[in-house]
DNA sequence: GCCCAGGTGGGTA
DNA sequence: TACCCACATGGG
């Protein structure tokens, strides 16, 4: 299994190259982006982040200074703006009250405790928590998303109904615990998952995972 | 016009 | 546990 997972990684890397994630300038910006991108195209998130930056709200103190209504107006382009404004508010209020707004103090927690802490916050589920752990806190935690489930179930490595935890374990249990590897692997999965297959042929030459075509296609209704 | 995007929380059986 | 559904903008 280890070699199989590494081979898939190498094929993706050979085709797409290094992805350079996360597309954010600071750990706090990564947290904001991780919440804003929930079920949302990144291009829309970029507009919202630009609005927050212009408002000086890409720091815990800057964001805390805004009302939830003001935040909602700024993140409107990212969709679900009322919900996401509440989520961002929950994070900065927690950070302010428990850690004096100091992200470094929160990140001083050990990985397991930090994950539980993040999951206890409104609006942070498994994928968002793990994205923060990996891309903001630099912990060796594998991030699972819808693309991961789709691609690896189609490869026959897990059932389509696999849980988040079990799918994460597939990687955690068989790969070296390496932040750079986990970073690049997840980013490559997202990159590959966005591609729409045009040939619709399993094992087609253009698919970097030619052992089995894993492109989603219109024929699949996806 | 219709489908989809780097999920999560809340409600019901 | 296992489904539902709401949440919402912007691009193809």
Structure description:
The protein is mainly alpha-helical and 222 residues long. It folds into two domains: 2-19 and 143-217, Helix-hairpin-Helix base-excision DNA repair enzymes (C-terminal) (Endonuclease Iii, domain 2), CATH 1.10.1670; 27-136, Endonuclease III, domain 1 (Orthogonal Bundle), CATH 1.10.340. The chain is built from twelve helices and no strands. The protein has helices at residues 2-16, 27-36, 42-54, 60-64, 68-74, 81-99, 103-106, 111-119, 126-136, 146-154, 164-172, 179-193. The protein is globular. Residues 217-222 have low confidence and may be disordered. It binds a DNA duplex (13 and 12 nucleotides) through residues 33-35, 37-45, 47-48, 76-84, 87, 122-128, 131, 143, 145-148, 186-187, 189-190, 193-194, 221-222.
Task: Calculate Rg over CA atoms.
Answer: 18 Å
CATH architectural arrangement of the largest domain: Orthogonal Bundle
The CATH class name of the largest domain reads: Mainly Alpha
Q: How does the major sheet shape up?
A: none
Tally the helices: what do you get?
Answer: 12
Order of helices and strands: HHHHHHHHHHHH
Count of spatially separate domains: 2
The unreliable regions are 217-222
Beginning-to-end CA distance, first to last residue: 28 Å
Write down how many β-strands occur, each being a DSSP E stretch of 2 or more residues: 0
> Quick one: CATH superfamily of the largest domain?
Hypothetical protein, domain 2
Name the helicity range. Answer: 55-70%
Shape: globular
Mean pLDDT: 90
CATH topology of the largest domain: Endonuclease III, domain 1
Structural class call reads mainly alpha
Strand portion: under 5%
């Amino acid at each position: 299994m280890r070699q199989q997972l590494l081979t898939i990684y190498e094929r993706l890397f050979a085709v797409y190259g290094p992805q350079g994630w996360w597309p954010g300038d600071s750990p706090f910006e990564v947290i904001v982006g991780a919440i804003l991108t929930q079920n949302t195209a990144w291009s829309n998130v970029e507009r919202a982040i630009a609005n927050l930056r212009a408002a000086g709200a890409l720091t815990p103190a800057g964001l805390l200074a805004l009302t939830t209504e003001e935040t909602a107006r700024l993140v409107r382009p990212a969709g679900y703006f009322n919900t996401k404004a509440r989520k961002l508010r929950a994070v900065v209020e927690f950070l302010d009250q428990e850690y004096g707004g100091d992200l470094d103090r929160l990140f001083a927690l050990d990985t397991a405790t930090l994950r539980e802490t993040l999951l206890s916050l409104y609006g942070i589920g498994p994928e968002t928590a793990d994205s923060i752990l990996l891309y903001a806190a630099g912990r060796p935690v594998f991030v699972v998303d819808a693309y991961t489930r789709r691609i690896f179930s189609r490869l026959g490595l897990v059932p389509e109904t696999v849980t988040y935890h079990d799918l994460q374990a597939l990687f955690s249990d068989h790969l070296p615990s390496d932040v750079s590897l986990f970073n690049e692997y997840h980013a490559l999965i997202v990159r590959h998952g966005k591609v729409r297959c045009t040939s619709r042929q399993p094992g087609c030459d253009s698919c970097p995972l030619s052992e089995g075509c894993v492109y989603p296609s219109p024929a699949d209704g996806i």
